Amino acid sequence: MIQMREQDRLDEKERYRQSREDELLKQEEREKDRKLERSFQQTLLTAMVGKPAHPEANTEQSGGSKLSKMDVGDVVQFFRNFGHHELVQKVSEENINGATLMFASHDFLTEMGMNSAIERSKLLGALSQLK
């Protein structure tokens, strides 16, 4: 009986240790994902504007956001750089410029043909950094 209690106690400790390790691994994975996402967005912005973006830059002093100044050709290039070649034709057909993209939402991107919620979120994150 005492041996069973001792074994139960040891099993409980092992389960706790394992759950703690699992939680730490999940936290590490989430942090890696966040870093990868930030790196991806920075790479995309660098490809889009030709130089690294600085969050502290004041776009009001430069007369508006980079996004609002984009014409249809710039938006086409943005979607190509983002890897969504299938949306390029829709952008051209609908005459979508940066001013239009300022108000893009999940519904807007779904209507354009972007079915993946993850891809829509990535794109909206990149667009918000250009606003």
What is shown here, in short?
By secondary structure, this protein is mainly alpha-helical.
Task: Name some characteristics of this structure.
131 residues; single chain; 0% strand; elongated; 6 helices; mainly alpha
Please provide a written account of the structure.
By secondary structure, the protein is an all-alpha fold. Helix content is 69%, strand content 0%. It is built from six helices and no strands. Helix 1 (2-49) crosses helix 6 and helix 2 (72-82) runs antiparallel to helix 3 (88-94). The protein is elongated. The chain starts with a helix and ends with a helix. Residues 51-62 have low confidence and may be disordered.
Quote the average pLDDT. Answer: 80
Number of helical elements: 6
Using only C-alpha atoms, the radius of gyration works out to: 23 Å
Strand content: under 5%
Sheet with most strands: none
Give me the count of strands. Answer: 0
Low-confidence stretches: 51-62
Apparent shape: elongated
Structural class: mainly alpha
Q: Cα distance, first to last residue?
A: 68 Å
Percent of residues in helices comes to: 55-70%
Instruction: Please trace the helix and strand order, writing H or E for each element.
Output: HHHHHH
